[in-house]
Amino acid sequence: VTHSISACIGSMTINSKRLDNESPVSIFAVNKCYVTVQEGTFFDGSGFAALVREGYKVRSDLNITLEFRTTAVHGILLGVSSAKVDAIGLEIVNGKVLFHVNNGAGRITATYEPRGTNSLCDGKWHKLQANKSKHSISLIIDGNLAQTDNPYIQSTSADTNNPIYVGGYPADVKQNCLTSKSSFHGCLRNLMLTKGQQAELFDFSRAFDLRGVFPHSCPGAEH
């Protein structure tokens, strides 16, 4: 077994001596246990999860679905970029959800603006679907559709080759379709990327880099 357990461990004794887990000598990717826990992955607002080390290719068609829960009005949800300008990005800015796509000719953005500034940042679960179909993009939040016109209809493919960064990204990494640098604080679950009939559900515990992210453990109330 080469990966850590997704669980809470307490009251451990060795040779009848109780271990003090309140003041460890060193600690890595361990959080406190919550009294009430929900399904989901907790992002503490300091880091990110990195998926697909070899690079993810968005290309012409992609559908992204996820659920999020936050009380913060800013936060990066997801970004996939290239060394050039091609990229996609999902982020929360001032309580709005933005879906950016650059197929090489220029960035276009679909924006979902809720009626109240904090209505998406109320600590409750919200469903997000971001769809890129060649040059067309759309965003559906809790069943509400937001679309935008794309003047660059000849440019249809986002030729990305970098990892998928969720909840933020490292300082030395370029993201061409994210305007914010704020790491996400809250919980995410059911991240799925679909191309045609191929749907891939991502498990954060299998990320190749996790910083400030705690898979399979979402506190029942915001901390």
Topology:
Blueprint: E1 13-14, E2 17-18, E3 37-38, E4 41-51, E5 61-70, E6 75-81, E7 87-93, E8 96-102, E9 107-112, E10 126-133, E11 136-141, E12 144-147, E13 164-166, E14 185-195, E15 198-201, E16 209-214, E17 218-219
Antiparallel strand pairs: 1-2, 3-17, 4-13, 4-14, 4-16, 5-10, 5-14, 6-7, 6-13, 7-8, 8-9, 10-11, 11-12, 14-15
Task: Explain what this protein looks like in three dimensions.
This is Laminin subunit alpha-1. Pfam families: Laminin_G_1. InterPro entries: ConA-like_dom_sf, Laminin_G, Neurexin-related_CASP. This protein is an all-beta fold and 223 residues long. It has a single domain, classed as Jelly Rolls (Sandwich), CATH 2.60.120.200. The protein is built from no helices and 17 strands. The strands form 3 sheets. Strands 4, 5, 6, 7, 8, 9, 10, 11, 12, 13, 14, 15 and 16 form a 13-stranded antiparallel beta sheet that branches. A two-stranded antiparallel sheet has the order 1-2. The two termini are 32 Å apart.
Q: Judging from the principal axes of the Cα atoms, what is the shape?
A: globular
Low-confidence segments:
none
Order of helices and strands: EEEEEEEEEEEEEEEEE
What portion of residues belong to β-strands? 35-45%
Number of strands: 17
Helix content: under 10%
Query: Pairing-aware structural class of the strands and helices?
Result: mainly beta
CATH domain class name: Mainly Beta
Helix segment tally: 0
Note the gap between the termini: 32 Å
Radius of gyration, whole Å: 19 Å
From the 3D coordinates, which CATH architecture would you assign? Sandwich
Main sheet attributes: strand count, strand direction, barrel closure: 13 strands, antiparallel
What is the name of the CATH topology? Jelly Rolls
Number of domains: 1
Average pLDDT value?
92
Pfam families: Laminin_G_1 (PF00054)
InterPro entries: ConA-like_dom_sf (IPR013320), Laminin_G (IPR001791), Neurexin-related_CASP (IPR050372)
Organism: Phaethon lepturus (White-tailed tropicbird)
Domain Laminin G: 38-218
